[in-house]
Write a structure and sequence with these properties.
mainly alpha; Ferritin; 2% strand
Length: 195
Amino acid sequence: MAQAGLPLQQFVGRQVDELAALQPQFDAFRAANRPEAVRVLYFMVRDHVLVADAARNLLARRGQVSRPVTSPTPIAMVADSPEQMIRQDIDAHQQTLTDTQQMMANASSPEERSIYQQAINSTQKHLNWLRALDQGQQVALGYFGPTVPLNRIAGYREQVGQSTISGGRTARPSSYSQRSHHHHYHHRYSNGYRR
């Protein structure tokens, strides 16, 4: 029984499996006094959650089941050392990259391709971080800033209410000007800090 949403459901399932494999590593890396690896894990978990949520969102918009299809036997990541855990993560991410590239090649919609592209970019970034950890190099993570909106990951056009704006930018009501908006914002937030 093949469904159009099945590849996307499998994708969600793989992201959930990867998250399950990463979760126990937090304690292991903390116990091994590897704070840089713990920090990398936080960034990787966030990226996996984002693409999984974007895929779930797309499935929900299509009215399809968004329950993840997990593998019957999740890969048990049993490692004797932090170094071995990192190498297992590298292997898992290389496999994920190959699988996601294949899913992208067979994607049936621009939204799916956009989600898979985001996942490919994140996976390549994760591989770079993991290889740096494996080689004992400093990992340049940057700041744990705001996340990308799910609709941008899926490549949706900007929406206002229920109608889709296909012209790119939305028109503002004539009474709304950039200048008055800026003044209002500046006034509202700058006064609170003068004491």
